[in-house]
Amino acid sequence: MKWILISIITTVVLAASAALFWLDSQFEEPDARWVHSLAGEMGAASVLAIFAHPDDEQLVTGLLIRANENGGAITRIITSTKGEAGTPLPQISRIEDMGIIRYAEVLKNGYALGVAEQLVWDYPDGGLTDENFDEYVGRLQGQMVTWRPDLIVTFWPDSGFSNHSDHKTAGRAATEAVRRLRETAPDNAPKAIAYILAPRRMMRRFGGETGRVVADNQPAPTHEMPGEGWAKIRGWDIHASQRGYVQKNYGMPPAVVHRLYNKEHYYVLDF
User: Fold this and answer.
1) Distance between CA 85 and CA 124 in Å, rounded?
2) How many domains does the chain have?
3) What is the CATH number of the domain that holds 71?
């Protein structure tokens, strides 16, 4: 009986280990080049992340932390909306106060990530559209001239990591702002753009139709680096109004997901 029990336990452990290995492999991009710090690899002394909503910066915690702590780079964030139209997960405030709550959450998380300066703009959540595109691009250009970042971090315009229209517009506007600056004021223009990408195998297998659209509309990543999963787990506690987002979308809590999904993948456009 003892040997039967040992055999059963061994089989269960081996099966669990194989399942864990398989799950981990869904978050990998084996052809991407491994770097310790993307900002360090690019020689960036100043990094500007341009995103749409509070908690979008959760996708790039590794890049921001390692740029700051390991490379001594100045890091900054522009969050284009206050996220007032987001779904509370869980509800921790009156719905009409969501924008205020999420505004505070992104500032708190940015501070925890060592970000030197943050701007949270007043574009409507869900309202980054062609109607205000040129004005939005102009504001981004102006801030780039003021801060003079070497590296821009944003969404890939055709996929937006989750196919969210605001994400795609933010990525498109950031790209256009860099393009215009490189034409009109090249001395003030960033030297590179890093687009945060979703792991394609994971998106195709677990992301449903949206995941397949995302995976089919983003390039293969050029670089991968540590994602500092511990900071992402901490970040979901700071973003208390969205703490349940990972569980809802991945079916697992952040403490599990970010131990499997422990890298960040980027497509780098280097000028």
Assistant:
1) 8
2) 1
3) 3.40.50.10320
Confidence label for 22 from pLDDT (cuts 50, 70 and 90): confident
* Greatest extent of the chain over all pairs of C-alpha atoms, in Å: 79
- Domain of 153 in residue numbering reads as 37-270
pLDDT digits (tens, 9 = 90+) for 217-262: 999 999 999 999 999 999 999 999 999 999 988 888 999 999 989 9
Global pTM reads 0.94
In degrees and rounded to multiples of 5, residue 22 shows phi and psi of -65, -45
Task: Give ∠ CA 152-56-160 in degrees, rounded to 5.
Answer: 70
Distances from the Cα of 9 to the Cα of 4, 16, 19, 111, angstroms: 9, 10, 15, 46
* Domain-located, residue 207: yes
**Cis status of the peptide bond prior to 90, with omega within 30 of 0:** yes
| Residue 51 included in any domain | yes
Q: Is residue 198 part of a domain?
A: yes
Contact 64, 114 (CB under 8 A): yes
The three-class DSSP label of residue 220 is coil
- The whole-angstrom separation of Cα 110 and Cα 99 is 16
The Cα–Cα gap between 36 and 243 comes to: 28
Q: If you compute the radius of gyration of the chain from its CA atoms, what whole number of angstroms results?
A: 20
**In 3D, which of 39, 15, 46, 25 has the Cα closest to residue 116?**
46
Total residue count of the chain as it appears in this document: 271
Token readout for 145 is 């001239």
Tokens 């890091």 belong to which residue? 75
